[in-house]
Design brief:
10 helices; Peroxisomal Thiolase, Chain A, domain 1; globular; five-stranded mixed beta sheet; four-stranded mixed beta sheet; alpha/beta; single chain
């Protein structure tokens, strides 16, 4: 049976020029390089320059993805931008990206699911393609998380960085089997009862301020391993696959210990886990596409490979997707 699939046609990424090492943070906080590495696996992170916005990074990643796909902006029907750090309360940062890319058709909007945002955005774009409402979609994750951190809090400020990643999804044909190229399945979840474990303590309606990130780290760790494992199992079960069928596991890059624990729980060998957290830290909605692009550029992810992505973020939101490259 012939079906429409969302095939990855191109990919791109952008990281700010400024690198902030653990040693630099240790001069400002009661912490050390050893303390940060041992608990998180993070060595350094990128921080956006003054005057460098989420839209700037999103545009750079999108432009690289379009070049990779050999498409111009007016071939795109839809931009779905995942971010928790938009340029402005409104309009959607995606519309800024649309305008600066020179895209004068289609639609553009933001998706807010924090660290799960890219998985959510991918699912949205995939469904637009599957029902025939879009042929080519730009899916972007972009964040300036450095702007919502309490830099005096060593438990959170050492964890995050800035960056952007993007995929071009294009409509293709498949036979409706797990051997098809493209997005095979997506699974999204949320549970608002966990709000107080990971949130930003401000917003236009509540406080008329931006606020800063607050987190209960130990409980988030425990919940993350459980919930992301459940999302992974949902994707594998939907396609009649097991962890042994996965070529590459590309998780949300929150913390190396979470990555390791999740891989162990679902049975993915460490050699098949793509980890960029050491150099990018947690870039929220940008972390999965940044890791994907890293593995594409270094030759690990190749056409035909089966790639599993997953993430969990504040809310809680979480989700997974299986993609045949």
């Amino acid at each position: 049976m012939s079906v429409i699939r969302s095939v990855v046609a191109g990919a791109g990424a952008y990281l700010p020029a400024r690198t902030v090492t653990n040693q630099e943070l240790a001069t400002q906080l009661d912490t050390s390089d050893e303390w940060i590495r041992e608990r998180t696996g993070i060595h350094e992170r990128r921080i956006a320059a003054d005057g460098e916005y989420t839209s700037d990074m999103a545009i750079a990643a999108a432009q690289e993805a379009l070049r990779s796909a050999n498409l111009n902006a007016n071939a795109i029907d839809l931009i779905v931008l995942a971010t928790a750090t938009p340029d402005e309360t409104f309009p959607a940062t995606a519309t800024t990206v649309q305008a600066r890319l020179g895209m004068t058709r289609g639609a553009a909007f933001d998706v807010q699911a924090v660290c799960s945002g890219f998985v959510y955005a991918l699912a949205v774009a995939d469904n637009f393609i599957k029902v025939g409402q879009a042929k080519n979609c730009l899916v972007i994750g972009a964040e300036t998380f450095s702007r919502i951190l309490d830099w005096s809090d060593r438990t959170t400020s050492v964890l995050f960085g800035d960056g952007a990643g993007a995929l071009v999804l294009s409509a293709g044909r498949g036979e409706g089997t797990q051997a098809d190229r493209g997005v095979l399945t997506t699974h999204l979840f949320s549970d608002g009862r966990h709000h107080d474990l990971l949130y930003v303590d401000g917003g236009p309606s509540k406080t008329r301020t931006t606020g800063v990130l607050r987190m209960e780290g130990k409980e988030v760790f425990r919940q993350a391993v459980t919930k992301m494992s459940e999302a992974i199992d949902a994707s594998l079960s939907a396609c009649g696959l097991t962890a042994q069928d996965i070529d590459w596991f590309v998780p949300h890059q929150a913390n190396q210990r979470i990555l390791d624990a999740t891989a162990r729980k679902v049975g993915v060998h460490p050699s098949r886990v793509v980890s960029t957290v050491a150099h990018h830290a947690n870039t929220s909605a940008a972390s999965v596409p940044l890791a994907l692009v890293t593995a594409i550029k270094d030759g690990r992810i190749k056409p035909g490979h089966l790639v599993l992505i997953e993430a969990m973020g504040g809310g809680f939101t979480w989700g997974s997707a299986l993609i045949r490259w």
